[in-house]
Amino acid sequence: MKIDLYTRCWNDADMLGFFFRHYDPIVRRYVVFDDGSDDNSLDIWHSHANAEIRPMPEYDDPDSRIGSNLAVLESCWKESRGGADWVIVTDIDEHLHHPDLGNYLAACKRQGVTIIPSLGYQMLADEFPHVEALLSRDLTMGAPDPVMSKMNLFSPNDIETANFAPGRHEAAPQGNVVIPERDELLLLHYKFLGFEHTLNRHRQLDRRQRKKDRAMSWGFHYAWPREQLRAYWDDLAGRLVDISDGELRPWATHPGSRWWRRQALR
After folding, report:
1. 138, 160, 183, 217: which could join 175 in a potential S-S bond, CB 3.0 to 4.6 Å?
2. Residue 233 has what pLDDT?
3. How many domains does the chain have?
4. What is the pTM of this model?
């Protein structure tokens, strides 16, 4: 099974160990677009044997960081056509999870599935994890969140265009689009790892927002004051489930409408 992963990076050094530990068992090649990191993220990427580091192209919309980054992720994966069975288009804090991921992907390929949307969970921890943690094993409490249900994984040979919405929170893929019979793949969003760490990261990202990002409310949560982030944090804490629970049955219990099911009914 040949899987290429595409992502973007900006000062993600503290998350890269978790990222590699999670994806190394299945990914044959990483392609990362660095958006001007000035921590040691690039040193970490360069030390990874199967990683290719590229500078983020000049923003095609100077007024939007989020829109310009999206334009890169919309097209970069097409270079994997003819060479990869699957591509993963993701952020550093997004971990695709299944109890038996490799075999599940192989089974989907045999069944003719071409996109595998994932059910989103906002993972929560009061303290930042130990540097050697495997997050999907060691930090398993998360709140179901339909907004984080995305199409991070698909066949580059069957999909012509992904048509991602901002943040990749939805997509309108075109081509030979075949979804699984039931939704088993999870997207574990490891963003809320220690309250102070999260607040500081938000403030850093908010300073990078541009005129159109703010006008369109893209990344609006980066500007939340401490009190608003705390209220959201407490709401998540009240809705946590254990994604490692074998009785969870996410395909039946994850709330909200699923955009890929709506599209399939059209």
Report:
1. 160
2. 98
3. 1
4. 0.97
